[in-house]
Amino acid sequence: MIHVVRVTELDQLMDIFSDQGYREDIDRNRCLYVYRGMSNTSFTLETSLERNCKDKKDILERSILRNFKKYAIIDDPEIEKSIWRQMIVGQHHGLPTRLLDWSYSSLVALHFATSEADMDQMNEHDCMVWRIDIKELHRMLPEKYQKLIEETKSTVFSVKMMTKACSGIEQYDEDMQDKSMVVLEPPSIDSRIVNQYSFFSVVPAKILNLEDFLNRYTDHTYKYIIDKSIRWRVRDMLDQLNINERIVYPGLDGISRWIARHYFVKGQDICYKWKPMDTTPKTFDQLSQN
């Protein structure tokens, strides 16, 4: 079941920030949720492979990865050893893949939810943050995957663990069917992945609609819909907390994006409502009442 929460007040965001549980074994509070921010509630949980290749995705995926590996091996010799690394590096550089981006940080997810290519659209529509439970998803995995988690005392899968669990995407799809899905932690191939606290869900080919899957098989999935009336307020709060482009996109590209948005001037129709002057002739008594 997907729980939908409408956020209309800034105070409600504390429910997202404080998603932690106490662990008696370490006497600390920990979170096993990951988050995905989306700038428009009309967007779906669709992978770039689905958007790009549509109903031909299963046929074209192997060709996409094969050709990417052929050229990427010059910059990353390790890429030849694992198809999962090929996906991660490719996703990082804009290649259509079956991976879906998530973050361990709810603040990072809020950053992406309150970012627009055209900032004048901020007041035009609501945005949203998805939350999924890693532990819940991994309880649904086939036995050999669960045993691997227990053996390594991990909460998420690494590239090495995925390579050990299955030989490739064909076996993965056969293992998962349409009833389970792995959450994968990528290697730290650059500072952007580190700063964004990145995770990926590896969407099996037989899960044709991820939202339907989450609604049918999970109990801890949340969709926080953030009302458009507070988007700018949330955006400005995140800037004060130093959650912005210069952090999530380290380097001059991120600095440039941050500066551009920091000095963005809202359209006049957004800043105030203009009301034409009433030029109707008035008597002295009418004027004295104003």
Question: What features would you describe in this structure?
Answer:
This protein is of the alpha+beta class and 290 residues long. The protein has one domain (2-47, 98-284). The chain is 42% helix and 15% strand. The chain is built from 16 helices and 9 strands. It has helices at 14-17, 48-53, 57-72, 83-92, 106-113, 134-139, 143-152, 159-165, 169-176, 191-195, 210-217, 231-240, 245-248, 252-262, 268-271, 284-288, and strands spanning 2-7, 21-23, 28-30, 33-38, 99-103, 127-133, 182-184, 198-202, 221-226. The strands form 3 sheets. A 4-stranded mixed beta sheet has the order 1-9-6-4. Strands 5-8-7 form a 3-stranded antiparallel beta sheet. Strand 2 (21-23) and strand 3 (28-30) form a beta hairpin. The protein is globular and about 55 Å long. The model is unreliable at 270-277 and 286-290 (pLDDT under 50).
